[in-house]
Design goal:
This protein has 306 residues and is an all-alpha fold. It has 15 helices and three strands. The N and C termini lie far apart (117 Å).
Length: 306
């Protein structure tokens, strides 16, 4: 018998291939390794073709290809390159999932999260893109229902629909934290009600006077840091540095419009969106604006009417 016609038992084939006989039997049962013949007692016998085929199957399995894909390659239903392309896409998906899992676990460690919080975070972050889109759209519908699309207050509806459906391929801790906080806001009925209040106010009219938010941030921010009470006389000079001269009526109208549009949570929403889109962070102004609102409210009181 020539070497090419040599017959090997499964034990001998396993020894030559450096594999366990159970593995070869499984692959043989799946049709990947051809049986050349049967012994008189019914045992499987293999030849050199099986040994060569075994080497290819082992390589493909070590590369992560499944039995179905290997079968198609062996039966020439697809090329190795085609199977590899499909498998690369699967590996990429697995890597994204692993990176997300790692980021979630890092947040769990930093927050010292308990079982319930961990489960909640995982559910929020692994929900489908379609479900996340549904959450966003439901929020926008609650907040902007019946508001004309061309109204000034409705302008933010389009931007609020633009929450990216997926985290970046390599999410950072900041991305994960931003997703969690954003989804929490979008499912908060009070947040939707506040955004709707702002949208309704915006649909009515624009601000009566332009206001320099940089000046609010600078001067009111310094007043906050210095502990200056917005109700005190010391606040008069700060207000005059922020605003142009206004009549009492103009000042009251401006204060009411600032009250309608200033909100720490809404500002936080846009900051979180910036994190997800990789935009440079913008300095917060809502807290400083709240100081200015309190100062204006005090100056609307009878003792301050000019």
């Amino acid at each position: 018998m020539t070497k090419s016609a040599e017959r090997m038992t499964i034990t001998e084939l396993a020894r030559r291939a450096g594999l366990h006989s159970r593995t070869i039997r499984f692959w043989s049962d799946a049709g990947l390794i051809p049986v050349a013949a049967r012994s008189a007692t019914g045992y499987r016998l293999y030849d050199a073709t099986a040994l060569a085929r075994l080497s290819l199957v082992r390589t493909l399995r070590e590369l992560g290809l499944g039995i179905a894909a290997i079968t198609q390659i062996l039966e020439q239903q697809q090329t190795v390159a085609q199977a590899a392309t499909t498998h690369i896409a699967a590996i990429d998906a697995q890597l994204r999932s692993l990176r997300l899992q790692r980021a979630i676990l890092q947040v769990v460690v930093r927050r010292a999260a308990g079982p319930k919080e961990t489960q909640h975070m995982h559910q929020l972050l692994t929900t489908s893109a379609a479900e996340r889109k549904r959450i966003v759209n439901a929020f926008v519908e609650r907040a902007f229902a019946d508001i004309p699309q061309n109204a000034p207050g409705a302008a933010i509806a389009h931007a609020m629909r633009s929450l990216p459906p997926e985290l970046p391929d390599e999410p950072s801790d900041a991305h994960v934290e931003a997703w969690l906080e954003l989804l929490g806001l979008l499912t908060d009925a009070s947040f939707a009600a506040r955004v709707r209040e702002m949208a309704v106010s915006g649909a009515a009219a624009a601000l009566p006077q332009p206001i320099d938010m940089g000046a609010v941030r600078e001067h009111a921010g310094r007043a906050l840091a210095a502990g200056i009470d917005p109700l005190s006389g010391a606040a008069d000079g700060i207000v005059s540095r922020i605003l142009p001269p206004l009549t009492a009526a103009e000042r009251s109208q401006l204060r009411q419009r600032l009250e309608a549009f200033n909100d720490v949570c809404v500002e936080r929403y846009w900051q979180l969106m910036g994190v997800l889109y990789g935009r440079p962070p913008f300095p917060p102004v809502a807290v400083a604006c709240a100081w200015l609102i309190e100062a204006l409210r005090a100056r609307d009181a009878p003792a301050h009417v000019q």
